[in-house]
Amino acid sequence: MKKLIYxxxxxxxxxxxxxxxxxxxxxxxxxxTEQPAAAVAxxxxxxVSISGDDQMxxxxxxxxxxxxxxxxxxxxxTGKLPKEGMGHNWILLKDGVDxxxxxxxxxxxxxxDYVPASREGDIIAHTKVIGGxxxxxxxxxAPAPGTYQFLCSFPGHSGMMRGxxxxx
Length: 168
Ligand code: ZN
Fold this sequence. Notes:
Helices cover 28% and strands 27% of the residues. By secondary structure, it is α/β, with parallel strands linked by helices.
């Protein structure tokens, strides 16, 4: 019981300490700087990240952004396997494009990172193919509000590696 009271005291001490330090920081940063302008520019950029692993899975099957935003998407490969065997990319398809049909074409396009030249008109944005331990970032404008589909077009992956990209 004594120990419990002691821990409460310690917690209370830390809470008080935190409160004090945050008050101090707030009063210190009242001087106007150039920063607000940069913050406004960044407010239009939504950063999202999605990762793929050696089990041929994305860590999420749904990404939501707001209309009118610039999207900065980072694809991370958290696995160890090389891109020749377990490569991942991220492709966002335009509304109405049949994902399975697209994937069927894409798997033949090894030379262009599984992005078929004949289907470029079906794509809103895409990353390159990466292997284990790598990551890649792309920027694109969020399309009109709606629900879109994304996939990894590496051969055999789109069955597992697909999801919805929602623009609100
Ligand atoms: Zn993949």
